[in-house]
Write a structure and sequence with these properties.
22% helix; 3 helices; Transcriptional Co-activator pc4, Chain A; four-stranded antiparallel beta sheet; five-stranded antiparallel beta sheet; alpha+beta
Length: 153
């Protein structure tokens, strides 16, 4: 039996999967999915477009997902549910995530929205982007792989 530890199995942070969606109106966004194996979670970071192909990472939204959150997103990406709606509330803020399948042939097949409302001043930040079938396929694969790593399989 070989007890050698392989670096790829002990790595804490992944390179992540980032989906950039700038647009000419300046209302685009970017969403990044990162695995943190030590915390047994995926962290989603999102930022609004702040200029031509620039994003406001200083005002980013962060949301932590556990296995049930990952499962809801996977069920939508696999066509088992039409929409995943996730809501997390802490003393400081409320965060929401929606992933929706759309059957409109004139639009991207998926819509992704993440928001955060601060409890102190009720300010709201929101990032919404469309997802192509290709982006959804990569996201599904990344989430499935993250699930395996979180479970230790």
């Amino acid at each position: 039996m070989n007890d050698t530890t392989h670096p790829e199995t002990t790595k804490t942070y992944s390179n992540g999967y980032t989906i950039y969606k700038p647009n000419q109106r300046g209302t685009g966004g970017v969403v990044r999915f990162n695995l943190n194996a030590e915390k047994r979670a995926i962290f989603i970071e999102a930022a609004s477009q702040s200029g031509e192909k620039q994003f406001d990472w200083d005002q980013k939204i962060i949301m932590k997902w556990g296995l049930s959150d990952i499962g809801a997103a996977l069920a939508t990406l696999q066509g088992r549910l039409p929409q995943a709606k996730l809501f997390h509330k802490t003393d400081k803020a409320s965060s929401a995530f929606e992933l929706t399948f759309r059957e409109d042939p004139e639009r991207a097949p998926y819509s992704l929205m993440i928001s955060r409302q601060e409890e102190a001043d009720k300010s709201l930040r929101k990032v919404a982007i469309p997802l192509t079938h290709s982006e959804a396929a990569v996201l599904e694969t990344a989430l499935r792989t993250a699930t395996d790593r979180i479970l230790g399989w």
